[in-house]
Amino acid sequence: MENERLHIPDNEQYRELKKFISEHKKTPGPLIQVLHKAQSIFGYLPSEVQKFVSVELNVPLSEIYGVVTFYNFFRTEPIGKHVVNVCTGTACHVKGSKVVLDALTRELGVGVGGTTEDKFYTVSTARCFGACGLAPVMVIDEEVFGRLSPQKAINIIRDFKKAEEN
Ligand code: FES
């Protein structure tokens, strides 16, 4: 009934999430787990999905909103096809990750957390990929790029995009 009121489409994604919720409802503190699952299914957590979780888990929407905004790994906006994660951990910071990040955000015309207009890249930051020996480091999707300079990072994202377009 509740879901009809929310106009939740009856599609594969919501069915998968509903199944996950019913399997994890009884485990202690399921909210974070459920939100992770929801983000892996939808790519981000739009308000309809947050409402759905609220109804299904019987948790107030305000609590869900609080959790989503507290943890920076939850996203409320759709992400681009590829995520460029610049490491801001100590080793990378010392080796100049800030100037690399600034160069990338300038090149792409978006801030941290932003997605380019063509939806190709989302820029994000993370703390340590365990590749400190290669600092400063960025990771595009799963691929690690190290010993970056601002120009090297820019060349990588240009080449990465070119390679996909060809
Ligand atoms: S601090 Fe950047 S990879 Fe470890």
Describe the structure.
This protein is of the alpha+beta class and 166 residues long. The protein has 8 helices and 4 strands, in the order αααααβααβββα. The chain has 2 domains: 2-70; 82-165, Glutaredoxin, CATH 3.40.30.10. The protein has helices at 2-5, 12-24, 31-42, 47-57, 61-70, 90-94, 97-108, 150-165; strands at 82-87, 121-126, 138-140, 143-145. Strands 2-1-3-4 form a 4-stranded mixed beta sheet, covered by helices on one side. It is elongated. Bound molecules: FE2/S2 (inorganic) cluster. FE2/S2 (inorganic) cluster binds next to α6.
CATH architecture of the largest domain: 3-Layer(aba) Sandwich
The CATH topology of the largest domain: Glutaredoxin
Number of domains: 2
Helix content: 40-55%
CATH superfamily label of the largest domain:
Glutaredoxin
- How many β-strands, per DSSP? 4
Q: Outline of this structure?
A:
The chain has 166 residues and is of the alpha+beta class. 50% of the residues lie in helices and 11% in strands.
Strand and helix map with partners:
Blueprint lengths: L1 H4 L6 H13 L6 H12 L4 H11 L3 H10 L11 E6 L2 H5 L2 H12 L12 E6 L11 E3 L2 E3 L4 H16 L1
Parallel strand pairs: 1-2
Antiparallel strand pairs: 1-3, 3-4
Helix pairs in contact: 2-3, 2-4, 3-4, 7-8
The chain binds FE2/S2 (inorganic) cluster.
Please supply descriptive tags for the structure shown above.
50% helix; 2 domains; binds FE2/S2 (inorganic) cluster; 166 residues; elongated; 11% strand; alpha+beta; Glutaredoxin
